[in-house]
Design brief:
This protein is mainly alpha-helical. It has two domains: 1-37, no CATH class; 45-59 and 86-160, no CATH class. The chain is built from six helices and two strands. Helix 3 packs across helix 4 (112-125) and helix 4 (112-125) crosses helix 5. It is extended and about 55 Å long.
Amino acid sequence: MATSWAALCRGVTGDGLVRRRLYSDDQLSVLSFCRAIMLTAIDPGALRGDLSERLLPVALERITPDRRRLDDDLTAAWADAHPRLLGALLTLTSAVLAALPAVRLPSLPRMADFARVVAGVDQVLGTAALPAYLNLGTALAAEVIDAEPVASTIRDHLAR
């Protein structure tokens, strides 16, 4: 199980596989990747600390019965909204890419490149997403400690 957590962490921050080509002694095949990985969980406290530092949690609201829609209706609404959403996303991306060279962070958190992009989005949109993102990491770390009996006991002992 520990290796699967480590594999998720490496997949999010970048990793690679180096293998010899089939039936060859000297040709190497290199596959490098860095991807966003989506996880679903009921208890984020069950995550390991190093993985929790790389998470961007999204809490979804329950859909009430009066707001439920048929799949065909959702497909039609998506087809209608897709061009506008894509255009808005590309416009935001180009604005952030233009602002990014001037973005400097006072200190670099665990996911420094991601934090820099979030700071660029904040600069372009006038939002405060970076402090919220950094606070989420602190909250998740606290949940991870709460879920570990030894860690929470040490924390409680140090607090006294």
